Amino acid sequence: IRQFSAVDGSVIGPFGETSQLTDPVDLAFSETGELYVVEGDGVVSVFNAANGLFVSVFGDVTSGVEEVVNIVASPLNGELLAVDGRAGEPARRYDAGGVLGDLGETAVAGRLVDIAFAGGLPGSLFLADATGSLYRCAADGSSCAVSAAADVLLAGGGPSAVAGNPSYAFSAASSAAVLL
Predict the structure, then answer these.
(1) How far, in Å, CA of 29 to CA of 136, rounded?
(2) Burial, 53: exposed, middle or buried (Cβ in 10 Å; 0-12, 13-18, 19+)?
(3) How far is it, in rounded angstroms, from Cα 55 to Cα 131?
(4) What is the CA 1 to chain-centroid distance, rounded?
């Protein structure tokens, strides 16, 4: 994992002890200063976000059968949420002890490709699927509905990533960016 300057985009170099990873798939920062990195085998390692030093192994988020394509740390309760890339599978909730269960109503019709939070307001969880839909859900994964505005924006093809805009966290202007 490489670190880049937020000022000018230049490469700073390898990020701490993350070079020990062999097959990183996704990463997520927590609200409490950790960097979570999931590898292709589902093992999640935790690093100090300030210096990149290894802290611990969080656990395995695949249970041997899932295809994890994205993770996010919940700003509400510290749980790690993982997107299973197989069609029709819900996002799942994990803590250091293992799987806690499915995340609300997140088993959408298509194959999920990403998950993100945009502040702590109800409706702040966004899910993108491979069919071109962007879903907005309550933070607990309930009340998921296709975002009408996103349907228009995504008419040309499915999203490959979605990210919550932290600039508007906990405000009525919360938003999500979608990579097409």
Answers:
(1) 21
(2) exposed
(3) 37
(4) 17
Contacts of 157 (CB under 8 A, 6+ apart): 132, 180
Letter for the amino acid at 99? V
Find where tokens 């985009």 sit: 9
User: Residues 6 or more apart from 42 whose CB is under 8 A from it?
Assistant: 60, 61, 62, 63, 64, 66, 68
Distance CA 139, CA 169 (A): 13
Cα end-to-end distance, the chain, whole Å: 23
User: Going residue by residue through the chain (180 aa), what tens digit of pLDDT does each one get?
Assistant: 887 776 777 778 888 888 888 888 888 888 788 888 888 888 889 998 888 899 999 888 876 567 788 888 888 888 888 887 776 778 888 888 888 888 888 876 567 878 887 755 555 788 887 777 778 888 888 888 887 444 454 455 544 444 544 443 444 444 444 444
